[in-house]
Amino acid sequence: MSAPQPIHLHDYQLPAYRVTHTELKFDLSPSATRVVARLHLERHSERQEDNLPLVLNGEHLKLLRVAIDGQELGAGEYSVDAETLTIFEVPQRFLLDTEVEIAPESNTALEGLYLSNGMFCTQCEAEGFRRITYYPDRPDVMATFSTTVIGDAASLPVLLSNGNPVERGELPNGRHFVTWEDPFPKPCYLFALVAGDLEKVEDRFTTMSGRDVTLQIWVEKENLDKTDHAMASLKRAMKWDEDTYGREYDLDLFMIVAVNDFNMGAMENKGLNIFNSAAVLTHPLTATDAAFQRVEGIVAHEYFHNWSGNRVTCRDWFQLSLKEGFTVFRDQSFSADTNSAPVKRIEDVSFFRTAQFAEDAGPTAHPVRPDHYIEISNFYTLTIYEKGAEVVRMLRNLLGWEAFRKGTDLYFSRFDGQAVTIEDFVGCMHEVSGQDLSQFMSWYSQAGTPEIDANGHYDYAKSEYHLTLRQRTPATPDQHEKLPLHIPIRLGLVGTKSGDDLEMTLDGETLGKDAVIHLREEEQNFVFTGIAEAPVPSLLRGFSAPVKLRFPYGREDLAFLLQHDSDGFNRWDAGQRLAMLALDDLIAAHRNGVEKVMDVRVVDAFRTLLTAKVDDKAVLAEMLTLPSEAYIAEQQPVVDVDAIHAARTFVKQSLAVALRDEFMAVYGDHQSDVSYAPEPGQIADRALKNVALSYLMSIEDEEAVALTQQQFEADHNMTDVRAALTLLTHSSRSDLADPALKAFGEKWAHDSLVMDQWFSIQVTRPQPDVLERLKFLMQHPAFSLKNPNKVRALIGTFASQNRVNFHRIDGEGYQLLADVVIELNKLNPEIAARIITPLTRWQRFDETRQALMKAELERIRAEELSPNVYEVVEKALA
Ligand code: 0A1
Ligand code: ZN
To answer: What angle do helix axes 752-763 and 718-730 make, rounded to 10 degrees?
Structure first.
C-alpha cells in the first residue's frame, strides 16, 4: 500500500464544474440503500481550459448507472476507482444522473449514511458525502437541494432532511416518502438525512422581523422528558444572535435530532442539526450542572453556525477555523452573557492552557490555518477551535465591540451565499477599522505558543514603573523560524499601599487604570510615568492573548493580587500561580526524598478566601480548586506523574487538615433542597459545597464521609450525586466505594448516558487496581467499542485523566490504549486517531516511559493503517 499523500493549501484551484441544483432520492434499506442523484452541472466560468474531465468524489459506493442528459454512458466513457468517478468528456452545461448502492448497516466509521439504534442518520462534514453518492465533495461547490426519502412506514415513520417538507405520501409494500426542499445553496457537507422511529417536542420562535419559526427536537420516545433545557437554550440562542449580531433565522423550520452513535458533539446541517445525545439530553436526575451548561453551549454553537458557517462557508478545509474559531467565540460570549462571565472565562482558559498548550507543544502542533494535511478529520482540533476563538477575541478587543460588529455585518452581507477565506474575514475587520492587521495575520499561520518573559521595576525617585516584555515562540515540527507576533496585553498596575489600580500614563498618553499595550517587537520597554506608589503589575488580564507569560512574582505579590486585583480572572490566576509555586517545591521535595512541608502562605490565602465575604461564589469555587495534574504537568520540563500526584494530594490534604472547620462551614452554608434549576446562583452553591466536600474527603474525615453518603443517598440531582459518588469511589475504602457503585450501576443500567458517567468515575480512581477494573468494564454489557461515547467515557477518560495509572511504569496502561487503537483503526478511524493522543506526548516523560510509549506507537505503525491513524502516528514518531 502506498503511503497517503498530504494536500497543500497552495495547490488550491477553483472547481472545474459547479453544481447549481442537486436532486436526491434515497430508498432506505440497512444493507442496500439505493441513492439516485441528479446533478445540474455547468463548467465554472473561470475554468475554460479545453477538455476538462468531470471528476467526482465517491468512496465505498457500488455504481449501478451513470447517464448524461439522459444518455447512459458506456464503458469507455468513464472510469471508476476507489476514490473517484471520472467522465472524460462532458458538455458546458448538463444533467448527470447516477445510481449507487450503499450499506448503512456495515458503516462503523459513522461517516456518510449509517445506522444508530435502528435509525438512519448522516454525518457529512468534512468528507462524508462522498460515501453517499458521487459528488464534487468540497465546500466551495454550493447547490440548492431537493431530497426524497423513501422508507418502511412502520419502522421508519419519521423521514427528515434539510429545509422544508414539500410533499409526502404512501407507496406500495408498506413504504412511504417525504420530499424536502432546501432553498439556500449549501455545500454537501451540510447535507443531512434522518429516518427512524422518533418523537418530537415542538415549540415556536418569532424572529425579529416577525416571522414564525417552528422548532422541533426529535428523540427516541423514552427521552421526551430530557429536551426542555435544549429547547430553552435554543430559543435563548436565537434571541441572543438577533440582539448581539443582528442575525435572524432564515427557514420556517429548525430541527434538532438526538443520536446515540456520533463521533463528535453535534453538527450544524442546514435546518437539521444532528446531535450526539450526550450534547442535547438533560434531566436534573441524570445530567450534572456541567452537562447542562455544555448542552446550552453546543446548542448555541450549532445554531450560530447557521450564519457563521452555513450562509457564509469556507472555501476549502484549510479555512476551517474561519467558521469554527468564530463560532466558538460566539458561543463563548453567549454562555458568558447567560451565566457567570468570569467563571466562563476561567473555565475556558484553564482548559485551554492545559489542553491546547499541550497540543501546540506536541508533535501534531499546527497553525490555526494549517497549510497541509493528510486527513482533514484530524484537524478538528483545539487549535482550530479554541485558539481560533482566542484569535477572533483578540480582533474583537483590538477593534472594540462596535467596529468589530460593523466588521461582522460587512462580512455576512458581502459574502452571503459564498465560500470564503480567513483573509476575507480579516479584510472586513481591516476595512471597517482602518487598522493595520498585517502582522496580526501571523496568528493564523504560525504554530506554537508564544512565551513572554516579563520583568519590571519601580523607580521611586522618578515615580516610574518600567516594564520589559520579551517574546519568543518555540520551534514546532514544520516551522523552525518564528516571527514576532502582535500581542495585545491588557494590564493594570495595582498600588501596594492603596490596593487600587493606578492611573497609567505611557509616552505622555493617559491610558486609564486598565489598558491594553501592544507588544510587536521581540523585546519592548514600557515606561509608565506618574506612578505614585510601588505597584504589583497585573498582566494579561482576562487572558488577553493565548500566550504563556512569566513574571518573577514573589509569593507576597501573588497573595496581594489574589486579594486586590480588580480583574476577577487575574485574581483567580494569582491564586493558581501561588499554588504552583508551592507545588513546585513539593514536587522537588518528593523527587529528592525530602520531607514535604506545606507553605503557610497558601494556607493563609485559602483561609482568607474561605472566611471573607465573597460575592461571586462561582468564582470562589474556582479559586478554591487546585490546578489539575494535567495543568501542573504542562508547567514541568520533564513530567513526573507520581511526584505531581503526591504533591497535589499533599497540598489538598494539608489544606483540609488546617482548614477543616472552615470547609465544613462552607459545606453547611451551601446545602439546599430547593428544586433543581440549572441557574447560576444554584450552580455556584453546588460547586462551592462540592469543592469543600472534596477537601474534607481527601482526609476521609468521619463527619465528611457521613455527609457524602447522605448526599449520595438523598439523590436530589445528578450534580450532587455524581460529586458524592466520585468522592466515595476515589476514597481508599472499598466499603464506601463498592456499595455506592453497585447501587448506582443497577439504578441506571437502562440509561446509556448515565452509564457513561459510571464508567468515567471508576476509571479515574487513583488506586492501582484500576487497570484491572477497566479491562473488566470493557466486558460490561453497557460497553461497546462501536459507540464513541463509551470509548471516550472508559478509555479516553482513563488515558487522559488518570495520569498515575495510565503512565504506570510497567507500561500496561500504554499497551491497553494501543490495543484499543488497533481495534478502532478498523472500526472507526476518526475515533482511533483521537483516542491515541496521550501516547503521542511521549517527549514529555522520563526515558523509561518514553521508550515504552514509543514501542506502543511502533506496534501500531506496523498495522495496516487508516490515513487518520497513519498521519498521527507518523508525526508522533518523526
Ligand atoms: N462542525 C461541527 C463539528 C463536527 C465535525 C466533524 C464531524 O464529523 C466528522 C461532526 C461534527 C461543529 O463544529 O459542531
Ligand atoms: Zn462548529
So the answer is: 30
| Residues in the chain, overall count | 878
Q: How far is the CA of 380 from the centre of ligand 2 (A)?
A: 9
3-state secondary structure 165-219: EEEEEEECCCEEEEEEEEEEEECHHHCCEEEECCEEEEEEEECCCCCEEEEEEEE
Pocket test for ligand 1, best of 275, 302, 380 (most atoms within 8 A of CB): 380
Q: Which regions of 9-123 does DSSP assign to beta strands (E)?
A: 17-27, 33-43, 54-57, 62-68, 71-72, 78-80, 84-87, 93-102, 112-116, 119-123
Q: What is the pLDDT of residues 4-36, one digit of tens each?
A: 999 999 999 999 999 999 999 999 999 999 999
Beta strand 487-495 with 199-206 is unpaired
Residue nearest to atom 1 of ligand 1 (CA): 267
| Integer Cα distance of 608 and 605 in angstroms | 5
Residue of the CA atom closest to atom 8 of ligand 1: 125
Residue of minimum CA distance from atom 6 in ligand 1 = 125
Task: Write the secondary structure of 530-547 as one string of H (helix), E (strand) and C (coil).
Answer: CCCCCEEEEECCCCCCCC
- The DSSP symbol for 132 reads T
The residue to mutate among 124, 125, 320, 326, having the most atoms of ligand 1 within 8 angstroms of its beta carbon, is: 125
Residue that has been written with the C-alpha cell 507553605 in this structure: 599
Mutate which of 111, 256, 267, 373 for ligand 1? The one with the most ligand atoms within 8 Å of its CB, which is 267
Buried b (16+ CB within 10 A) or exposed e, 384-395: bbbbbbbbbbbb
Q: What is the ipTM of this complex?
A: 0.98
- Report the C-alpha gap between 820 and 818 in whole angstroms: 5
Q: Is 302 an annotated catalytic residue? A: yes
Tell me the per-residue pLDDT of 398-438, one tens digit each, with 9 for 90 and over.
999 999 999 999 999 999 999 999 999 999 999 999 999 99
Place of cell 458561543: 331
| Direct distance between the N- and C-terminal alpha carbons of the chain, in angstroms, rounded to an integer | 20
251: alpha, beta or left, given left = phi > 0 and alpha = psi -120 to 50? beta
Cell digits of residue 569:
480572572
Burial class (CB in 10 A: 0-12, 13-18, 19+), 579: buried
Query: What region does 811 belong to: left with phi over 0, alpha with psi -120 to 50, or beta?
Result: left
Helix (H) or strand (E) holding 526: strand 523-529
Cell 451565566, located at residue: 339
CA 422 to CA 405: how far, in whole Å?
17
Q: Which of 99, 127, 296, 302 is catalytic?
A: 302
| CA 750 – ligand 2 centroid, Å | 31
User: Which among 505, 597, 491, 499 has a CA at the least distance from the CA of 537?
Assistant: 491
Best CA proximity match to 177, nearest among 186, 164, 185, 168: 168
762 vs 669: CA distance, rounded Å? 30
Ligand 1 site residues, Cβ closer than 6 angstroms = 123, 125, 263-268, 301-302, 324, 377, 380, 830
All 3 cell numbers of residue 202?
415542538
Spatial separation of the C-alpha atoms in residues 149 and 744, rounded to whole Å: 42
Decide: helix, strand or coil at residue 604. helix
Selection from 868, 876, 870 nearest residue 831 by Cα:
868
Determine which residue's CA is closest to atom 4 belonging to ligand 1.
Answer: 267
The model scores a pTM over 0.80: yes
pLDDT of residue 350: 97
